[in-house]
Specification:
The complex is a heterodimer. By secondary structure, chain A is an alpha+beta fold. Chain A has two domains: 5-80, Glutaredoxin (3-Layer(aba) Sandwich); 93-212, Glutathione S-transferase Yfyf (Class Pi), Chain A, domain 2 (Up-down Bundle). Chain A has helices at residues 14-25, 46-51, 70-80, 93-117, 119-122, 130-153, 165-179, 188-197, 201-205, and strands at 5-9, 32-35, 59-62, 65-66. Chain A has a four-stranded mixed beta sheet with strand order 2-1-3-4. In chain A, α1 packs across α7 (165-179). Chain A is globular. In chain A, 42% of the residues are buried. Chain B folds into two domains: 2-80, Glutaredoxin, CATH 3.40.30.10; 93-215, Glutathione S-transferase Yfyf (Class Pi), Chain A, domain 2 (Up-down Bundle). In chain B, α1 crosses α7 and α7 crosses α8. By secondary structure, chain B is of the alpha+beta class. In chain B, β1, α1 (14-25) and β2 form a beta-alpha-beta unit. Chain B starts with a strand and ends in an 11-residue tail after the last helix. Chain B has a four-stranded mixed beta sheet with strand order 2-1-3-4, with helices on one face. The chains are: A alpha+beta, B alpha+beta.
């Protein structure tokens, strides 16, 4: 099963980390995997392009079934291996609704983070505006307040009592945001959630290798 | 069932259209619905904010279950009402993989469409640049060619994920329709045009066709040179 799977991934990339976590949660070990350096442009190499013509990671296939979009891959794995490992989509209507809602809502956080963290990568120098960066910072701060609120009122996991697909999608984002220096004091519920989930076996097993024993190189979010 | 559902929606919103298509495909008619005006700021009204603190549309609930994100609403409806209406998620691994893949790729397509069509909505006047809009148009053109290519490699009369209509089309058709509404060239994108003409005849599409387009079918020509 897992031997028919191939994953190209990058250390610390939230979409890649999602798929790694999902594979662990579904007990799929021994898949073929390739760790690539995005800095060196390895995600544009032929082997990756053969799986993902967009030249992006994650690039994932199961036999001839190609599923590169991270949430798509996670949903595919849950559906195909429903009875294996942990159930990531609850059956009960209430929990299921909240799982789907939070899992998809997480993409708002992903977008706000990318707008700020990738600003200089995406916007040519002559087109950059301080006002845009300021707007992006404010949008990310407001977005994080929404999630702080969700975890303050509910929890311990995003969909309630149990770890679910919503956490698979969301956790890698909050982990990288905290690594970028987000204030733990100003975000106690998010911090509590992070500390709870980081010790989960699937998360520990897939912790970004270049984070282990390496202090963060940047603190762009410390004043958010 | 439908009586326990409430949808707040607005014109000009592919995500609203998606949720409405999903409801039709799963045979839910007669749900409570309210058309709101973005221009008048009604998406920030108390009755919306009570369900959706983000103040966005669509805002949707089924009983006490809130599913504002359009993809979440689609997946919930399919999962909870699998045997009702159209089966939107295929059974076989190969079909399912392609369906999920295209479904989520549509989000990239949507973002690139918005970056052109809604440029002035998202970017404050002082920050707008011709060079940025040009870049966005180039990115959208590349994305459109990718989808044209996907459809070209499949048999005529195919849907986004193969022979059958699936959730990929529920989420994807509105994006394609919006592209044509904003002047996309039928000559340059024959496969996308074929797809558009195929799917627009579907009952769920006809039932949910944007009413504001019926009054003003021309839309804009923002994409005519792409």
């Amino acid at each position: 099963m897992a031997q028919d799977m191939t994953l190209h991934w990058s250390s610390g990339s939230p979409p890649c980390w999602r798929v790694l976590i999902a594979l662990e949660e579904k007990n799929l070990k021994g898949y073929n995997q390739k760790l690539l350096s995005m800095e060196k442009g390895e995600h544009k190499g032929k082997e990756t392009l053969d799986i993902n013509p967009r030249g992006q990671v994650p690039a994932f296939k199961h036999g001839n079934n190609v599923v590169n979009e991270s949430i798509a891959a996670c949903l595919y794995l849950e559906s195909q291996f429903k009875s294996s490992g942990n159930k990531l989509i609850p059956d009960s209507a209430q929990e299921q609704a909240l799982t789907y809602q939070r899992a998809l809502e997480a993409l708002n956080l992903q977008q706000r983070l990318a707008d700020l963290a990738q600003y200089t990568m995406r916007v040519p120098e002559a087109e950059r505006h301080d006002s845009a960066v300021k707007r992006n910072r404010e949008a990310l701060a407001a977005e994080l307040q929404i999630w702080e609120g969700y975890l303050q009122k509910g929890g311990p996991y995003l969909a309630g009592k149990n770890f679910s697909m919503a956490d698979v999608v969301f956790f890698p984002l909050i982990a990288i945001i905290l690594r970028f220096g987000l204030s733990q004091e100003k975000h106690p519920s998010l911090t509590r959630y992070y500390n709870q989930v980081k010790d989960r076996p699937s998360v520990k097993a897939t912790w970004p290798p270049h984070w282990v024993n390496n202090p963060p190189g940047m603190d762009m979010l410390k004043d958010l | 069932m439908a009586k326990d559902m409430t949808l707040f929606w607005g014109f000009g919103s592919p995500p609203c259209w998606r949720t409405m298509i999903a409801l039709e495909e799963k045979n839910f008619q007669g749900y409570n619905q309210k058309l709101l005006s973005f221009d008048k700021g009604e998406h920030k009204s108390k009755e919306v904010m009570d369900i959706n603190p983000r103040g966005q549309l669509p805002t949707f609930k089924h009983g006490d279950k809130i599913l504002n994100e359009s993809y979440a609403a689609c997946m919930y409806l399919e999962s909870q009402f699998k045997s009702q209406g159209t089966q939107l998620i295929p059974e076989s691994a190969a079909e399912q993989a392609l369906m999920y893949q295209r479904m989520f790729e549509i989000l990239t397509f949507q973002q690139k469409l918005y970056d052109v069509v809604y440029y002035e909505y998202y970017v404050p006047e002082g920050e707008r640049l011709d060079s940025a809009l040009k870049r966005n148009k180039e990115a959208l053109t590349a994305e459109l060619q990718l989808w044209e290519n996907y459809l070209q490699k499949m048999e005529t009369g195919s849907y986004l994920a193969g022979k059958k209509f699936t959730m990929a089309d529920v989420v994807g058709f509105p994006v394609v329709a919006y592209a044509f509404h904003h002047g996309l060239s039928e000559e340059r994108y024959p496969k996308l045009t074929e797809y558009y003409n195929l799917v627009k005849e579907r009952p769920s599409m006809k039932a949910t066709w944007p009413k504001d387009w019926q009054e003003n079918p021309q839309g804009t020509d923002k994409l005519k040179d792409l």
